Amino acid sequence: xxxxxxxxxxxxxxxxxxxxxxxxxxxxxxxxxxxxxxxxxxxxxxxxxxxxxxxxxxxxxxxxxxxxxxxxxxxxxxxxxxxxxxxxxxxxxxxxxxxxxxxxxxxxxxxxxxxxxxxxxxxxxxxxxxxxxxxxxxxxxxxxxxxxxxxxxxxxxxxxxxxxxxxxxxxxxxxxxxxxxxxxxxxx
Amino acid sequence: xxxxxxxxxxxxxxxxxxxxxxxxxxxxxxxxxxxxxxxxxxxxxxxxxxxxxxxxxxxxxxxxxxxxxxxxxxxxxxxxxxxxxxxxxxxxxxxxxxxxxxxxxxxxxxxxxxxxxxxxxxx
Lengths: 188, 123
Prior knowledge:
The complex is a heterodimer. By secondary structure, chain A is mainly alpha-helical. Chain A is built from eight helices and no strands. The longest helix of chain A is centred in the last third of the chain and has 23 residues, at about 155-180. Helix content of chain B is about 70%, strand content about 0%. At the A-B interface, helix 2, helix 3, helix 5 and helix 8 of A face helix 1 and helix 2 of B.
């Protein structure tokens, strides 16, 4: 299914054929559930949040004016739904200072195991202040594309870059205190 | 752009596959949404005359109120039929306060009766 098929499905739904919405759900269920998961880190809740986003999209289909791609509109709408949902019922997170200590002796030299480190970092993103959290989540969700991130959050690209930089600095600073020498920077 | 450990870890997130019943659940919710009747639009055509009358009444009352504060004696000259009748009934001494109360009570009564009448007709 491509953008033209998205548009055709939307036209059918707007004409009263609600079963055409299934094509949209089928195509976008993966991305929307994955985006929700990055906000809440809970699979079941991610599906509930994605369902709410689809329902909101169904109700607001007439509000898509085709200035942007359907995917852009859908991601922006879903992002708003997820942010509101997380604001309403916050994710239970550990503070950055409480993130897990190494679990076994091999890692007792103060260095995280790779799996622990990766999990800790992802949870640390969720624990960031919302303005940095949202930008980081969307940036990596959109394969590190600043303009897609900016469109999804309805922010100027400059603001996205600034928040991205600040958010990553917070993460590096907080986590390097606990994880030590693993955080060696590389040039791309 | 500098590519570091943060980028490397966060960009290789494992993909979640939605559960088998996800599409069914969403479509069930969509069908439920369709089954709900659309909200009744606000009856602007009916409400407009009432709203205009209320605005006019409010303006008239504000003018009369202003006059009352600036020149209490001028209330005797208000020649509206309701106020004049009330003045006659209640006597000139206490008519000012009582007439306003009576006017507002009558206004409220008429508004309630009218809205109940419209609601009954809609049902």
